[in-house]
């Protein structure tokens, strides 16, 4: 690379190079360097760098609105659907001949999400199960989101009741405590319109 | 009833980490168009971008249970995409494929939208930048990654990243002079 093509020439009267200015910009211009902030030529270079950065973000954002074909998503989702995360087995019941019937953690998560999502204004986030010993009750922890304006206490009560009923209906499994945390609030799309 | 499309990123990422494939699907539809546009800028090729993002999303599905901050899922996905893209660039270099196809893909008239001619000019300038400069530019300006993160992604030192970014900026400023 020839000398004049380098980024090591100083800009204006600042004593700083283009590489210095570039790094200064990326540190959000802190700590402030007076020699750069006072120099008109440096200011012009910094402003141009910022503008080109902004423009390249706009360029990507513009291309990002082009929709992708459904087949594009199908390729990914096919793979994802193949990789079901089952988790641990949880004993559900024992038949008279001693056969143990189990349910996977993953299946219980799914059940709890479905039950919760059925409740108006509720969306289930994370689910965690604590199953200390065989035959003991199952403790459930649920994080959820409540629609803006929905009474939280009512939603939590209904969730507890519905989850307990749904899980216990599956077999001999007994549900102990159900801890619910509301970590999120959402708006329904239909209501925003 | 509330539907998943009204859920926050954090909620969708948490559910997906618990194994909810539908929530993952909603998340993917929300962010894939940006990720593809980002990967096109990194790799310079639509076909490579599609492959990188698809691979990245499948990797993401597997690694979601390890994601500590589900609300940051978008930037986490962007990082996985940059890794896949830089890996691909490295292997492309090893197999000594010439970058002609990239320039051709960038100049593809079909992709030229109603963008201002200033945008078109920048698009051309970025496509013509040497690959090592273009990658640090895109990771920094579009991805918002730090010098340290970029260094790790492209397998070099933060000092080299700093130098390349300065050269990239200098080149862009010079070639975009009439638009400054």
3D architecture notes:
The complex is a heterodimer of chains A (193) and B (180). Chain A is 45% helix and 22% strand. Chain A is of the alpha+beta class. Chain A has two domains: 1-85, no CATH class; 86-193, Cation efflux protein, cytoplasmic domain (Alpha-Beta Plaits), CATH 3.30.70.1350. In chain A, helix 1 (18-26) packs across helix 3 and helix 5 crosses helix 6. The longest helix of chain A is centred in the first third of the chain and has 25 residues, at 40-64. By secondary structure, chain B is mainly α. Chain B has nine helices and no strands. Residues 96-115 of chain B have low confidence and may be disordered. Chains A and B meet through helix 1, helix 3, helix 4, helix 5 and strand 3 of A and helix 1, helix 2, helix 3, helix 6 and helix 7 of B.
Show the helix and strand layout.
The complex is a heterodimer of chains A (193) and B (180).
Chain A: H1 18-26, H2 34-37, H3 40-64, H4 70-82, E1 89-94, E2 100-104, H5 105-118, E3 122-130, E4 138-147, H6 152-169, E5 175-186, H7 189-192
Parallel strand pairs in A: 4-5
Antiparallel strand pairs in A: 1-2, 3-4
Chain B: H1 9-17, H2 21-43, H3 46-63, H4 73-94, H5 100-106, H6 117-128, H7 131-142, H8 147-154, H9 158-175
């Amino acid at each position: 690379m020839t000398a004049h093509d380098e980024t090591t020439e100083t800009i204006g009267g600042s004593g700083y190079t283009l590489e210095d200015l570039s790094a200064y910009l990326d540190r959000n211009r802190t700590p402030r360097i007076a020699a750069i902030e006072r120099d008109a030529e440096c200011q012009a270079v910094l402003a141009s760098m910022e503008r080109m950065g902004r423009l390249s973000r706009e360029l990507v954002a513009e291309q990002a609105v082009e929709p992708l074909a459904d087949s594009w998503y199908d390729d990914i989702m096919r793979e994802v659907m193949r990789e079901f995360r089952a988790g641990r087995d949880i004993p559900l019941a024992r038949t008279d001949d001693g056969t143990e019937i189990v349910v996977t953690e993953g299946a219980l998560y799914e059940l709890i999400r479905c039950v919760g999502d059925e409740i108006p204004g509720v969306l289930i986030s994370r689910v965690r199960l604590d199953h200390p010993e065989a035959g003991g009750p199952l403790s459930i922890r649920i994080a959820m989101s409540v629609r803006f304006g929905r009474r939280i206490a009512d939603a939590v009560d209904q969730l507890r009741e519905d989850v307990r009923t749904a899980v216990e209906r599956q077999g001999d499994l007994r549900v102990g405590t159900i801890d619910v945390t509301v970590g999120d609030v959402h708006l329904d799309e239909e209501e925003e319109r | 009833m509330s539907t998943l499309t009204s859920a926050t990123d954090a909620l969708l990422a948490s559910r997906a980490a618990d194994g909810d494939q539908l929530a993952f699907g909603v998340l993917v539809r929300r962010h894939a168009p940006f990720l593809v546009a980002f990967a096109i800028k990194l790799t310079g090729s639509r076909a490579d971008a599609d492959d990188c993002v698809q691979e990245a999303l499948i990797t993401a599905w597997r690694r979601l249970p390890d994601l500590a901050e589900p609300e940051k899922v978008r930037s986490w996905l962007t990082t996985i995409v940059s890794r896949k893209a830089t890996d691909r660039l490295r292997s492309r270099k090893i197999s000594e494929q010439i970058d002609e196809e990239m320039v051709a893909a960038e100049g593809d008239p079909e992709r030229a939208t109603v963008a201002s001619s200033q945008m078109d000019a920048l698009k051309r300038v970025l496509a013509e930048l040497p690959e090592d400069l273009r990658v640090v530019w895109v990771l920094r300006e579009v991805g918002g990654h730090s010098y340290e993160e970029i260094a790790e992604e492209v397998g070099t030192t933060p000092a080299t990243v700093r130098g390349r970014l300065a050269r990239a900026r200098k080149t862009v400023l010079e070639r975009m002079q009439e638009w400054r």
